[in-house]
Amino acid sequence: YFLSGVFWSYLYQTLLLFYADAILFSEHVVGAFSDLIYFSFITMTTLGYGDIMPISRMAKNMAVLEAVWGQTYLAVLVARLVGLHLSGSGRFD
Fold it and tell me: 81: domain range?
């Protein structure tokens, strides 16, 4: 999950290299790589504080994909853990 968030941060940084105004940073946010990591994890967990916002169509699409990825990852992880727990408890015998 952590590596996924960092990966998305690099994708956002790459996007900003080509489209500098693709992501809107509030006046309190500098726009450093650490802010992109923050934005990535806020997006992946679908918190969305609103201090950093995707503006371009590409940035919005990336944010949606990251949010879907983050929720899907957690759902699959929880389902897998529950499945392992139930199979170990003998309830499927």
Answer: 2-89
Q: What is the dihedral sign for C-alpha 84, 86, 88, 91? A: negative
pLDDT per residue over 26-79, tens digit each?
Answer: 887 777 899 999 999 999 998 988 889 999 999 999 999 999 999 999 999 999
pTM of the model: 0.82
Domain count, the chain: 1
Q: Are 9 and 33 in contact (CB under 8 A)?
A: yes
Decide if 9 contacts 38 (C-beta within 8 A).
no
Tokens of 22: 């693709």
CATH classification at residue 81: 1.10.287.70
